[in-house]
What we know:
The protein is α+β, with helices and mostly antiparallel strands and 330 residues long. The chain is built from 15 helices and seven strands. It has helices at 3-15, 27-41, 45-53, 59-65, 74-81, 84-96, 98-108, 112-123, 134-143, 149-166, 188-194, 210-223, 257-262, 295-301, 307-328, and strands at 132-133, 174-175, 233-238, 255-256, 265-266, 276-283, 288-293. The termini are far apart.
Amino acid sequence: MHKLLIASLIFLSSLASPLALAEIKDQVAVQKFIGKMVDQHQFEPDALAKLFQSVEIKPNIIAAMTRPAEGMPWYKYRKIFIRDSRIQGGVKFWQTNRTSLELTAQRYGVPEEVIVAIIGVETLYGERTGGHRVIDALATLAFDYPKRSKFFISELEHFLLLCREEQMNPLDPVGSYAGAMGMPQFMPSSYRHYSADFEGDMKRDIWHNPADTIASVANYFALHKWQTGQGIAFVVQANGDKYKQALTKGLSPDITVKQLQNLGVQVPKQVSEQTRVKLLSFEQEHGDDLWVGLDNFYVITRYNHSPLYAMAVFQLSAAIKQQYMRANHE
């Protein structure tokens, strides 16, 4: 472990008041985790022990995990993101970061409006990046939330590794209640695998640098096989009830357009009969909307595994592009 980082951990830990901390109850799991970090990644055991003395378990994080917005019906979820303030905020963000977005779109093949919409949905263009110390969030979910402990123990491992790699103090980064960080809300593993350095200054600053954030989102999509120049989703109509056979679990395209047509679904002519798509139903106040998602819709769900999320990003991106193009031609 970097000597400077060890020293800073010990110093900051010594400032913490034990009375102010909610102790991690599962000390056996903590010691097992420390042992793994020492054995596999050559961390200093004493430095990690002192670090975890400064970690605070947050019960409100557990409560937040049990009521995600993705549990809402579509007509309520949509209203959170498809609103004028977020659309106009996207136009302003695009105008302010026009050069970075243009160069990034050319390099990665991901449209500017999709990159902007992701940042808009995640953090309102950097305005709402979260108020929890990342290490508190990750430790709470790793050691006090058995339902997802395996995932968050892995993310805690990635977090400590990235802090060492980027020479950050683990007690400093702040993020969401789930430990997502910065303007694009990357989890630690995503930061290590997908974050990008736009300027070539050897830093990947997704907290304060819009250019790095823009490049990081585009890199994430590119590495998840974004199909440049292809569509994302189309609204469709259906005759009868046979289409319900195609409303299956999962998010990846699993049926051809021709097969959907045989079930009474009317798909736009610009989509080839042999194209594999995913039929999706979105709950409205009166009835449901039917859509077909293409490969790029599936790619968006790799950012957040929810069709509601992907549809919000898609519809917000279309609204932002429309307003941006209108503003540029006035």
